[in-house]
């Protein structure tokens, strides 16, 4: 090395650090310190311009030391940085550090790395949310959808052999609304509704049963029907609440069977708390109120306002919907039943709306509103299938039925044992007219769809036998077109003739009801006309009717 030609050291030139970056100022520069080390090295960041505040500083692009300098007292002038030596050795070192030296030291992959980190973060959050809902739904459905009920009509392709009798072509659900733990009589049924779904023709009917209907409760004597569930549950020998609830429902169904004459496939019990919270969970419901509801007896629950609902379309939160459902002092039990049906239809529409099922928060709140406040004997698969069917049924295909609106006014009010009760017009415990109406109003979906023509002929000497049988068949929805006498009166057994062989569901029901196997042979002298089926009643039909 030529020491003679060596240039003197200029301490005012920028000094390079071990990282390969130049630092303005010489050894004697004292514009800042690094940490508590007392270093006189000038900071490696570009200070703010004198006309800017400290909080306007922005971190420059490029490499920075792990410990940043602290700016003291005054604002430094902006130094000019010399060009960086980008020789091969420096470049390779910087590349190993993940830096790119072109374009002003801008990181080559920093944007994509940040994007990737953000995407991974969102994906992780999404997985956590999804896991939360999966776990939540699992435990909720395990608590609610216990299974135990059965409806052949819920199947995608219904096997004829699975239909045991008329009515199995529908899905009949007994819905009970009870006060729950917050009420003095928590298990009295304030709401009794049969939700009857026809998946064959995509229709639904809501039939309200008066809570004060006087009935015989098996094992407990005569009482209002709203006590049946309470008796069954409170006197249950089950070891848990679910078992006791099941016993209460079983007793209620036994009590209703002679009144309605239709099969009940599933049961649901909902307390007031679940109903109120469900309405709030979906963001409230809109109800077209037919007339103003005034009830000062529950005004204290409505901010001391006796007007529970004005006439017209009203927006109800959970509390107002509950008051509208349970008010009865200034109207009637029958009017209350109609209000409850209106609420159910509105709630169904809101729950099935896209706005509810696309909102995770609403789903979570809806699940929370259920829990221990709801009991069903649906299985998860049953409920999923029912949800599919319900989505196909528009609101204008949901019909409201009751037992008081003319011409189907079959009950009245009157005193029984000192209590005001609802009684059949035909007399105490006389439910034939009610059963005929209900079975025909809730016609089996397959019978309704096939609408096969049926001819009933009397093949005996018993007068009026064909008329009696025809009337019975009509209550189940059969299309009986002709009633008359057979060519002879010596038929010992009843015959069922399938003329067209095109109505397999009607054929199955008639075979089971009459206890015979259909044939295609038409007896001599019988003229079927346009009929699909001909029934010729024999002597066995007379003995059977007398037994029944």
Would you mind describing this structure in some detail?
The structure is a single chain. The protein has 548 residues and is of the alpha+beta class. The chain has three domains: 1-87, no CATH class; 152-441, LCP protein (Aminopeptidase, 3-Layer(aba) Sandwich), CATH 3.40.630.190; 451-547, 2-Layer Sandwich (Alpha-Beta Plaits), CATH 3.30.70. The protein is 34% helix and 18% strand. The chain has helices at 88-96, 102-105, 110-144, 228-234, 241-260, 272-281, 318-326, 333-352, 354-357, 360-370, 380-391, 432-441, 445-450, 465-475, 504-514, 539-547, and strands spanning 15-16, 22-23, 171-178, 189-198, 203-208, 214-217, 221-224, 266-271, 285-289, 293-294, 307-309, 312-316, 374-376, 398-401, 411-416, 419-424, 453-458, 479-485, 495-498, 533-537. The chain has a six-stranded mixed sheet, sandwiched between helices. It has a four-stranded mixed sheet with strand order 18-17-20-19. Strands 1-2 form a two-stranded antiparallel sheet. Strand 15 (411-416) and strand 16 form a beta hairpin. The chain is globular and about 90 Å long.
pLDDT < 50 stretches: 13-82, 89-103
Q: Please give the alpha-carbon distance between the first and last residues.
A: 129 Å
Describe the largest sheet.
6 strands, mixed
Q: Give the helix/strand class.
A: alpha+beta
Helical content, roughly?
25-40%
Strand content: 15-25%
Number of strands: 20
| Main sheet: strand order | 13-8-3-4-5-14
CATH superfamily membership of the largest domain, which one? LCP protein
Question: Roughly what is the average pLDDT, rounded to an integer?
Answer: 78
Shape: globular
What is the second-level CATH architecture of the largest domain?
3-Layer(aba) Sandwich
What's the number of helices?
Answer: 16
Count of spatially separate domains: 3
Radius of gyration (Å) = 41 Å
Classified by CATH, the class of the largest domain is Alpha Beta
Q: According to CATH, what is the topology of the largest domain?
A: Aminopeptidase
């Amino acid at each position: 090395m030529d020491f003679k030609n060596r240039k003197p050291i200029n301490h005012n030139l920028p000094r390079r650090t071990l990282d390969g970056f130049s630092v303005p100022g010489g050894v004697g520069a004292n514009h800042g310190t690094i940490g508590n080390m007392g270093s006189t090295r000038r900071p490696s960041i570009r200070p703010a311009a004198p006309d800017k505040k400290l909080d306007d500083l922005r971190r420059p692009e490029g490499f920075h030391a792990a410990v940043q300098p602290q700016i003291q007292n005054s604002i430094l002038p902006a130094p000019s940085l010399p060009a960086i030596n980008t020789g091969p050795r420096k470049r390779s070192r910087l590349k190993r550090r993940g830096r790119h030296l072109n374009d002003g030291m801008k990181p080559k992959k920093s944007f994509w790395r940040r994007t990737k980190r953000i995407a991974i973060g969102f994906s992780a959050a999404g997985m956590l949310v999804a896991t939360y809902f999966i776990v939540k739904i699992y435990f909720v459905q395990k608590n609610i959808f216990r299974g135990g009920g059965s409806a052949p009509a819920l199947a995608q392709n219904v096997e004829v052999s699975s239909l045991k009798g008329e009515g199995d072509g529908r899905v009949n659900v007994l819905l009970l609304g009870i006060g729950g733990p917050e009420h003095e009589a928590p298990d009295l049924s304030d709401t009794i509704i049969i939700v009857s779904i026809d998946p064959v023709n995509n229709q639904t009917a809501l039939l309200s049963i008066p809570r004060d209907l006087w009935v015989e409760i098996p094992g407990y004597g005569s009482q209002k029907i709203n006590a049946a569930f309470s008796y069954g549950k409170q006197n249950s020998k089950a070891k848990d609440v679910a078992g006791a609830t099941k016993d209460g429902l079983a007793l209620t169904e036994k009590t209703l069977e002679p009144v309605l004459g239709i099969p009940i496939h599933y049961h649901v019990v909902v307390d007031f708390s679940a109903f109120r919270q469900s309405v709030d969970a979906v963001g409230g419901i809109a109800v077209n109120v037919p007339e103003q509801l005034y009830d000062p007896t529950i005004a204290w629950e409505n901010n001391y306002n006796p007007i529970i609902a004005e006439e017209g379309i009203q927006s109800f939160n959970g509390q107002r919907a509950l008051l509208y459902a349970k008010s009865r002092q200034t109207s009637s039990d029958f009017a209350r039943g109609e209000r409850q049906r209106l609420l159910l239809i509105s709630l169904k529409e809101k729950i099935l709306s896209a706005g509810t099922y696309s909102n995770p928060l609403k789903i979570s709140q809806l699940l929370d509103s259920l829990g221990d406040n709801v009991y069903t004997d649906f299985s998860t698969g049953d409920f999923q299938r029912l949800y599919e069917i319900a989505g196909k049924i528009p609101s204008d295909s949901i019909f409201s039925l009751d037992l008081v609106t003319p011409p189907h006014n079959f009950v009245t009010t009157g005193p029984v044992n000192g209590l005001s009760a609802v009684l059949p017009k035909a007399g105490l415990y006389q439910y034939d007219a009610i059963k005929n109406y209900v079975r025909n109003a809730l016609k089996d979906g397959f019978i309704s769809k096939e609408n096969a023509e049926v001819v009933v002929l009397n093949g005996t000497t018993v007068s009026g036998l064909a008329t009696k049988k025809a009337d019975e068949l009509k209550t189940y929805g059969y299309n009986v077109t002709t009633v008359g006498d057979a060519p002879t009166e010596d038929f010992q057994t009843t015959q069922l003739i399938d003329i067209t062989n095109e109505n397999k569901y009607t054929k199955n029901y008639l075979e089971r009801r009459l206890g015979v196997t259909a044939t295609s042979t038409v007896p001599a002298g019988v003229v079927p006309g346009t009929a699909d089926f001909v029934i010729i009643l024999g002597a066995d039909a007379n003995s059977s009717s007398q037994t029944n």
